[in-house]
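G., the chain you wanted modeled:
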Amino acid sequence: MSPGGGRPDSDADPGGGRPDSDADPGGGGGHGSPGGPGGARDPRREEDFARVHSTDTSETLFSTGGGDRLAEAVEVMARIRRDGEWESAQTHASLLPYLLEESWELVDAVADGDRDELVSELGDLLLQVLFHAAIGAERDESPFDVQDVAGALLDKLRRRAPYWFTDGPGRGPGALDAAEQDRLWQEAKAAERAGRPPRGVVEGISWDMPALALGQKVLERVRSAGIPDDLVPDRMRVVHVGAGGLFHAAAHAADDASDADGSGSAEVKYRRVVREFAETVRAAESRLPVPAAEAGADEWRAAWHRRTDRH
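Predicted structure as tokens:
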């Protein structure tokens, strides 16, 4: 596997998907990368990054001794980022395809139940985290490294699940059931947004996720917002896939024929269904007389735009 996360077939480009020599080495540009606005890399910052994370110093992030393989991985990643021709040119944006690929390979490893493959794929994901942290350490403004990433995780856990940091009778996670833990988590999330405009029902969703996962996420948001089930069209709930792509029951055949995009892709067609439904949700939300969090089923029905099987 290349540090970029790709694992090409044996007859593929030995560069593992690396850019051609005449391509933009910055992959769109980024802070401190050769293709970014910062121009030349800052060797002092790189040295600091390697020193702080080195297993050879007393300042290592993980102080369990020379046998700490996680600390060693951080140190090696700093060296890779500094000295690798392809690796030093990467940006957060250029690495995203590898991150997505590795995430789905982890999904496959979980499904297969193979212990060694699972460990290997988790290692590939760890590489992506370390890679992005190494890039973050080079930013001209507000640099960050793997310590900041770990600190952000711990800070979030302390805010949303403080019981993990307490102990004793009647305290700690053992004193709470799953429903109570979820309630506390959601309350903490709401408190973090205090003072900011309320988030829309479908705001903040990653629209680049696979279509089925996207549809499920939208439906989760819709259910949480209290939108009644009768406003959710069958097209969102039931997907039939044939050789020609996505299709629905006979009642919707005319719709499918009239708006066919010619792609023959069930992924593309269901994504379009989800995006159309999300736009309907946004439009209805904009007509609510109260914030979405306070709206009841009747208010949602009154605000719904052209309730049809299609929308």
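The chain has a mean pLDDT of 77.

Shout if anything looks off.
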